[in-house]
């Protein structure tokens, strides 16, 4: 097996493990790639394999998604939930298109920034996890449209690698009155249009630099991410409902601090 193929497997598994927990999958994949010497054309690998994680959501929530969309023509609540997710998605569309080149060419290439964001985000998660103790919303379908839009605005912070898309949306939902389970579920549903959009736009932007080898590595990482993410999604809701998010806050702080020490040592 070629070295880059092995790395693609490792990074795909890492993507699946970290996409839906608030630790920044992109940050972990970029940092792991940095230390393993892996560079993908246009950084497309790191973005496109996230679609594998989206397919995990579609697989796990197929029945619930079918119920929502099939009842939308006659059920106002289903229509409102679809509108809430799309409304939360819109800020990322606008900022993602405007800032795409800066994000990919500057922010993605700054390991110190990524590690620092891991640490700072970990501190925020520890604080919010302890502070958000009186939730007003216990179902993702009940989030008001204004609340969904605010979560979408907060999600834009995740364009800084190391912040975490799921972390930003979960923290935003908790601060706005969601309980821990519904915050994670809304983050799951919001990931579908967000990551589909990022996949399509990034593939279009990098269409001229992707060769057969790059596409092969993306396919390998994609499959590994999907399989791994299915297990994580099934586990996560039960865990955070009982234990909260403190584990992930400490995880971020420890990993980010170790990376900063390694970078300071010239690694």
UniProtKB/TrEMBL annotation:
Coiled-coil intervals, chain numbering: none
Enzyme Commission number(s) of this protein: 3.6.1.27
Topology versus the membrane: Multi-pass membrane protein
GO BP, sorted A to Z: cell wall organization; peptidoglycan biosynthetic process; regulation of cell shape; response to antibiotic
GO molecular function: undecaprenyl-diphosphatase activity
Enzyme class: hydrolase
Subcellular location per the Swiss-Prot or TrEMBL entry: Cell membrane
Entry GO terms, CC: plasma membrane
Pfam families on file: BacA
Main localization category: membrane
Spans through the membrane: 6-32, 44-61, 81-99, 106-128, 183-201, 213-237, 244-265
Reaction(s) catalysed (UniProt annotation): di-trans,octa-cis-undecaprenyl diphosphate + H2O = di-trans,octa-cis-undecaprenyl phosphate + phosphate + H(+)
Top-rank taxon: Bacteria
UniProt keyword annotation of Acetylation present: no
Key words of the record: Antibiotic resistance, Cell membrane, Cell shape, Cell wall biogenesis/degradation, Hydrolase, Membrane, Peptidoglycan synthesis, Transmembrane, Transmembrane helix
Purpose: Catalyzes the dephosphorylation of undecaprenyl diphosphate (UPP). Confers resistance to bacitracin.
NCBIfam families according to UniProt: PRK00281.1-2 (NF001389), PRK00281.1-4 (NF001390), undec_PP_bacA (TIGR00753)
Entry similarity comment: Belongs to the UppP family.
PANTHER family in the record: UNDECAPRENYL-DIPHOSPHATASE
Additional remarks: Bacitracin is thought to be involved in the inhibition of peptidoglycan synthesis by sequestering undecaprenyl diphosphate, thereby reducing the pool of lipid carrier available.
Name of the protein in its database record: Undecaprenyl-diphosphatase
Native source species: Paracoccus methylarcula
Lineage: Bacteria, Pseudomonadati, Pseudomonadota, Alphaproteobacteria, Rhodobacterales
């Amino acid at each position: 097996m070629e070295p880059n193929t092995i790395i693609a497997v490792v990074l795909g598994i890492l993507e699946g493990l970290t996409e839906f927990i608030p630790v920044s999958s992109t940050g972990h994949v970029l940092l792991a790639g940095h230390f393993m010497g892996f560079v993908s054309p246009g950084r497309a690998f790191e973005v496109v394999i996230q679609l594998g994680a989206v397919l995990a959501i579609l697989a796990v929530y197929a029945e619930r998604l079918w119920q929502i969309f099939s009842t939308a023509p006659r059920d106002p609540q289903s229509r409102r939930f679809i509108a809430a997710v799309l409304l939360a998605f819109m800020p990322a569309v606008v900022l993602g298109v405007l800032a795409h080149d800066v994000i990919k060419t500057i922010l993605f290439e700054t390991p110190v920034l990524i590690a620092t964001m891991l640490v700072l985000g970990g501190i925020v998660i520890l604080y919010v996890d302890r502070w958000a103790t009186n939730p007003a919303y216990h179902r993702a379908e009940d989030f008001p449209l204004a609340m969904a839009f605010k979560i979408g605005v907060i999600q834009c912070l995740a364009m800084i690698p190391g912040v975490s898309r799921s972390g930003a949306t979960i923290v935003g939902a908790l601060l706005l009155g969601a309980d821990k389970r519904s915050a994670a579920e809304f983050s799951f549903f919001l990931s579908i249009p967000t990551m589909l959009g990022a996949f399509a736009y990034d593939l279009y932007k990098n269409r001229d630099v992707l060769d057969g080898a790059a596409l092969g590595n993306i396919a390998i990482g994609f499959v590994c991410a999907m399989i791994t993410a299915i297990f994580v999604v099934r586990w996560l809701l039960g865990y955070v409902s009982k234990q909260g998010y403190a584990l992930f806050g400490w995880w971020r702080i420890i990993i980010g601090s170790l990376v900063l020490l390694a970078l300071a040592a010239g690694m």
